[in-house]
Write a structure and sequence with these properties.
Strand content: under 5%
Distance between the termini: 40 Å
Number of strands: 0
Radius of gyration: 24 Å
């Protein structure tokens, strides 16, 4: 992960800001303040988390598709004043407004989540949750071990796929012939490998005395001035958006 201003903030504080922002956005009903907030959040994530524009665009694509569905459903199904009375489909102004607001909420939350994930290593997140959120070390390190297992699954899948390709029948052009049966065999192999890896991880955690109680951390999580700045900026921005929603 890149060394950015946001990476110096405490993960628990960032998670709290993300959760509070998600709740506060439910109080905003007008599209224009949400559109302005979305633009500000994109710029802030680009600058504070050093996320490239291409990465941001790709990460926003699923939220944009989901938001488009919300706009279409609300525009066609919600009662209100027709936008074009003579059109074959009844599209309401109120439906477009509500759908656009819901879509922009998702885009804002998605952009904030990208900034959080891009600036928060999993180990630091678990250490911070144990120190500041009083999360049990048993759950924290179990989640961390599970995340690392998931991160290693693509590499395991590639190894299994290469092993199956050696034994697979060849086509006329020399490439291995793979079908649904071959894919199912590879998936079963991945499942077996994941179960065995989980057993080894559980045994390792148990042998190291992972249990509730006081524990020390190699790199303890500490709150600093950046966390206070992040909270203040988030509160001011939320107040400005809520005020703008009332004015609109």
């Amino acid at each position: 992960m890149k060394d950015s201003w946001l990476s110096g903030c405490d993960p628990t504080v960032k998670a709290g800001v993300l959760f509070a922002a998600s709740v506060a956005l439910q109080l905003v009903f007008e599209p224009l303040p949400l559109l302005a907030l979305h633009a500000l959040v994109l710029v802030a994530v680009r600058a504070a988390a050093r996320v490239g524009w291409r990465t941001l665009a790709l990460a926003q694509a699923p939220f944009a598709l989901f938001g488009l569905g919300l706009v279409v459903i609300n525009a066609l199904a919600r009662p209100g004043e027709p936008l074009l009375p003579d059109a074959p489909l009844r599209v309401t102004v109120e439906g477009l407004s509500v759908g656009a607001a819901l879509a922009l909420r998702g885009l804002v939350i998605g952009a904030l989540a990208v900034g959080f994930l891009a600036s928060t290593p999993p180990r630091e997140l678990m250490t911070s949750l144990v120190a500041h959120a009083r999360l049990s070390p048993r759950y924290a390190f179990a989640l961390l071990a599970g995340q690392r297992m998931l991160a290693g699954m693509p590499r395991t899948w590639s190894t299994i796929s290469a092993a199956h390709a050696v034994r697979a029948p060849l086509r006329a052009d020399g490439t291995p012939r793979r079908g649904i049966v071959g894919f199912a065999r590879q998936a079963f192999g991945l499942l077996v490998a994941a179960i065995r890896s989980a057993e080894r991880v559980a045994l390792a955690l148990e042998s190291r005395g992972l249990r509730d109680g006081p524990r020390t951390a190699w790199r303890p999580a500490r709150l600093g001035s950046r966390d206070a700045v992040l909270v203040i900026v988030a509160v001011l921005l939320a107040a400005a958006v809520l005020a703008g929603d009332e004015l609109v």
